[in-house]
Design goal:
Blueprint lengths: L5 E5 L5 H8 L6 E8 L3 E2 L2 E10 L3 H15 L4 E7 L1 E4 L3 E9 L2 H18 L2 E7 L4 E4 L3
């Protein structure tokens, strides 16, 4: 992997510009970026907001995810940041990006990064619906 990856779980607003600065380089021919936003619905139910919670070892596990992707895409510059705490509709919840010499590698690395993050890193979503009900998502 070229350069140090950006790996963070934080309770403040995420920055696409910060992520782009990490994954772009003079050898970058393709850059793939995924930005996950809080949407106003889930399964035909209106959402008013949500809260993300993370296990204390979540950031360490996110480092392991980055290491796994870097092993398969050694020329990639990688970044993965996830927000925790209370988020409103429209807020950025997660950003992943991969900068690679070629676009195909960038798309593949970024897709793998978000998929592995979502399937292995212990971050849980508590959604609140417009009807006053709520739901936890991603619990083991």
């Amino acid at each position: 992997m070229t350069g140090q990856p950006l790996v963070m779980i934080q309770d403040s607003a995420l920055s696409v510009d910060e992520v782009l600065r990490v994954v772009a380089g003079s050898d970058t021919g393709g850059l793939a970026l995924f930005v996950g936003l809080v949407r106003d619905h889930d399964n035909d139910r209106g959402v008013t907001g949500l809260t993300y919670s993370a296990h204390p070892n979540a950031e360490a596990q996110l480092h392991q995810v980055i290491a796994g992707v870097a092993a398969d895409y050694p020329q990639a510059r990688l970044a993965a940041v996830h927000r925790v705490g209370e988020l409103a509709v429209g807020d950025i919840a997660v950003i992943v990006a991969a900068g690679c010499p070629h676009r195909d590698e960038a798309f593949l690395a970024a897709r793998r990064l978000i998929d592995d993050l979502k399937s292995t890193v212990p971050i849980w979503k508590h959604q609140v619906f417009v009807d006053g009900t709520d739901e936890w998502v991603g619990l083991p």
